[in-house]
Amino acid sequence: MNEEIISRIQKVIDYYGLTVSAFADAIGVQRSSISHLLNGRNKPSLDFVMKLIASYPEVNLYWLLKGEGDFYHSTDDVPVVLDKDKETLISKESKQAPLPLVERNETGQNPIKIVVFYPDGTFQSFNPKND
Predict the structure, then answer these.
(1) Domain containing 114: what range?
(2) pLDDT (0 to 100) of residue 116
């Protein structure tokens, strides 16, 4: 399995037409660590994987880790943020029609918190106003 993730990392490097040095600089790791990884001396750490995904968020994390799905995320995979002025959920980088604000569910319960996670590991939380 380790060899498979290494081959997928190599595919990322090749896809962007980067040298190993340029790739290391782009994701913020030492050049020698990329060389050791590609030669099978070291295994990729979680920190390494997260740096790669943070630098290239269009790379599908499941594909990178497990070989499942496609290499590239679709444009539908954009974070959703709350537009407090319009009280609707809208796509961050999209001009799609806004989605309706989350309402009570079938049991009459109101959501107490909405959390939005971003590819760089950051998040935002929103507390809907209480009626």
Answers:
(1) 78-131
(2) 76
